[in-house]
Amino acid sequence: xxxxxxxxxxxxxxxxxxxxxxxxxxxxxxxxxxxxxxxxxxxxxxxxxxxxxxxxxxxxxxxxxxxxxxxxxxxxxxxxxxxxxxxxxxxxxxxxxxxxxxxxxxxxxxxx
Length: 112
Fold this sequence. Notes:
- The protein is mostly helical and 112 residues long.
- The chain is built from four helices and no strands.
C-alpha cells in the first residue's frame, strides 16, 4: 500500500545527526597519520627483499657447485672402473676375449 499523500518537501533539510566540534579535522589528521605510517611499513617491508634474494641466490649457487662436485667424483669413479675393466680384459687369453666380444656383440640391450 503506497500513500499518495507523501511529499518530499515536508521532510526538510535539517541534519538528522550532530558531530562534535573539530570532528572532521580529527578524521583528516588520523587519515594522514595512518597514510604516513603505512608508507613507512611499506618501505620497511621492501628493504629485506635484496638480502633475501641474495640468500636464495647463494643457496642456489652452493647447490649447483655441490652437484658439479658430486658429478665430477662420479665421472672419475666411472673412468677408474672402465680402466679396471680394460685391465681385466687385457689379462684374459685371446680365446676368452673373442668369446666375450661375440657374446656382447649379440646382446640386444647393449647394441641399442
